[in-house]
Amino acid sequence: MTRSRTLTTEIPHELAGLRLDQALAMLFPDFSRARLQTWIKDGHALLDGVQAIPRQRLLGGERIELRAEAEEVVEYAAEAIPLVVVHADASIFVIDKPAGLVVHPATGHPDGTLQNALLHLDPALAAIPRCGIVHRLDKDTSGLLVVARTLEAHKSLVDQLKDRSVSREYLALVQGTVTAGATIDEPIGRHPSDRKRFAVRRDGKESVTHYRVEERFPHHTLLRVRLETGRTHQIRVHMTHLHHPLVGDPVYGGRARIPAGADPALIEALRGFCRQALHAARLGLIHPETGGEMAWESPLPTDFEALLRLLRGLA
Question: For position 74, what pLDDT does the model report?
Fold first, then answer.
């Protein structure tokens, strides 16, 4: 059942001229602006007794009544799944996720997920939206992600992601030779015929990916990729759009491409690498409580590193 409570306050005169959603974000900092905008659009905000609109400009002195609805809580079981915790304090966890671990329970993956593991690590996360997970990695992408342990930290991290102040760098092994780094600024949306895939399309959401060459091989390139936005499958879609799909990507990569002169070990490694060669190698953010800048790095997993060693042997 959805629970709600009504919050009442007066708009301070120093907030005159702001939009209602901007002012409410300052007056009720426990809630994200996106959630506040949703409540206003749903008619849950009254300004001097009249239903308000999100971009309404304020004069100051108005009385606001906001019906805040708690998200419906779905209970998931805690499971003793081992996790690599890179950092832990009262506000956040930083987790180094292995490839193969699904982040959220969903159809086909009702348990055995990162969320189930986090509930075992810290049962109090059940009170935080999505158990504190504010961004995700695909099942077969390895590397770093941050988890909020308090509502204040959750709001701070969501706002940082929205403001693009969270730094996320990936290592991606792609097919073909990439000559130089660049920026891909191409919108991404659902694939027109396959709803499980995404594609570059004019009516998609803004998506910006920066990349530079980390290491070259005769028929492959290791890229260091920095996300400015965080769309689903963004790196995989953008690199496929450039005709440089990720090695091993079962959705966007197609069949393994075997370079001329490859020895049996490399052929076996390329054919047997059945996940996208993508690793979240570095994560940087502003700590929600201290305000200090923090960053972490994660080494490549063994399967990824082994494939690179074989490619270096071909060179």
Answer: 57
